[in-house]
Design a protein that fits this description.
alpha/beta; Aspartate Aminotransferase, domain 1; Aspartate Aminotransferase, domain 2; three-stranded antiparallel sheet; 14 strands; globular; binds pyridoxal-5'-phosphate
């Protein structure tokens, strides 16, 4: 009788990695107390979601009972109207994370090389390893107070390793910094023709200069969006890929057709169709984000420029970051500290009204450089 590890595909049996985001419930179990304030997940905590105030229970039951539309036709139409592209330019999946996995499924076979920045959003490399890919990481560039992905190094590495995919989060998580649309065009034009850019734009809506260019389809690039952030729908699990028709046709071959339930589609469509809500959320976020960054900088912290809904602070060292995080956890407040050694001294805090708490400023305040 073979063991499960013998039965597993060779590239899966060989994996020793763990899920980078086990979630708030696992964290609560680990620390043995309830998390009252979750400022580690970049959810849009202030959003009133008023468009969902009067949802008819009959409609909820109907969507729960039936299979949804695999093509997400009405949701795509609502997104197209709100975002300025054509409905046929996108494919919807259950969150930007699922879109990342979908792209890797469509583009890579075990053994392929993929490239990303060392310490960027870890779900990409988690999924890439799960797909049997070899992940090559390149250090960030430290420049003028910001920490940015080094686009030249990513290109060089993609050429050297004959990579099938380069992953770039723009704006980036966890640094919050971003590259202009022109920089992204240059990156695309310098990648080898067999290499696809997975451009993760989960936070694009919080970055006004990037929003202006949000509807354009680029050759050789899949733009990945999330409804978890600027539409405040993290719990619904909805994201989409914006790409050219030929690329979308390849994604269609391996897409899980019923991955986005009818109820999620209906609720997402209702929220997306109310443009005021998203505009208010963006304006509110900008206010809290700037104010939180200002308050932390006034405490003497090194705060990174951010085009997102979070603030990243560089503590003097990993020990100081861990201590501040644990002090807050002991009070039921979660903030995020990346596992990657490149950012062991970084603390990431979701910008929202509730984050302005004495506990937060005092936990971080004791660690000023
Ligand atoms: C860069 C980045 N991409 C993707 C996601 C996940 O988005 P979704 O909730 O749509 O799967 C996140 C969530 O924090 C993120 O930071």
């Amino acid at each position: 009788m073979q063991s499960a590890i013998q039965r597993a595909a060779a590239h899966v049996a060989a994996l020793s990695h763990h899920n980078p985001f086990p979630g708030i419930y696992a964290l609560q179990q680990r620390i043995g107390r309830r998390i009252q304030q979750r400022f580690g997940g970049n959810e849009s905590l202030d959003a009133p979601l008023s468009a969902l105030r009067f949802i008819d229970a009959k409609i909820l039951r109907e969507h729960a009972r039936l299979y949804g539309d695999p093509a997400c036709t009405e949701l795509r139409a609502a997104l197209a109207e709100a975002e300025g592209f054509h409905p046929s330019d996108i494919r919807v999946d259950s969150g930007a994370d699922a879109v990342l996995a979908l792209c890797l499924r469509a583009l890579c076979v075990p053994g392929d090389a993929v490239v990303c920045s060392a310490g960027t959003y870890p779900t990409f490399s988690y999924f890439a390893r799960a797909a049997g890919c070899e992940v090559f990481e390149r250090p960030y560039r430290h420049h003028a107070g910001a920490i940015q992905a080094d686009l030249d190094a990513l290109i060089e590495c993609a050429i050297l390793r004959k990579a099938k995919v380069v992953y770039l989060a723009n704006p980036d998580n966890p640094t919050g910094t971003w590259h202009s649309a022109e920089d992204i065009d240059t990156l695309c034009s310098h990648l080898p023709e067999y290499c696809t850019l997975l451009l993760d734009e989960a936070y694009l809506d919080f970055c006004p200069p990037l929003r202006q260019d949000r509807a354009r389809v680029r050759q050789g690039c899949i733009r990945i969006r999330s409804l978890s952030k600027a539409y405040a729908l993290a719990g619904l699990r909805v994201g989409y890929a914006l790409a050219d028709q030929d690329m979308l046709a390849q994604l269609d071959k391996v897409r899980i057709h019923y991955a986005v339930g009818g109820l999620a589609q209906y609720l997402a469509r209702t929220v997306v169709s109310d443009p005021r809500e998203a505009a208010d959320l963006r304006a509110g976020n900008a206010r809290w984000q700037e104010e939180l960054a200002r308050r932390l900088a006034a405490q003497g912290h090194r705060v990174l420029p951010s085009g997102t809904n979070f603030v990243s602070v560089l503590m003097p060292d990993a020990g100081a970051a861990l201590q501040a995080q644990q002090q807050l956890l002991a009070q039921g407040i979660a903030i995020h500290r990346p596992e990657h050694p490149a950012f062991a001294n970084l603390l990431r805090i979701t910008a929202c009204e509730d984050a302005f708490r004495d506990e937060l400023f005092s936990a971080l305040g004791g660690q000023i450089r």
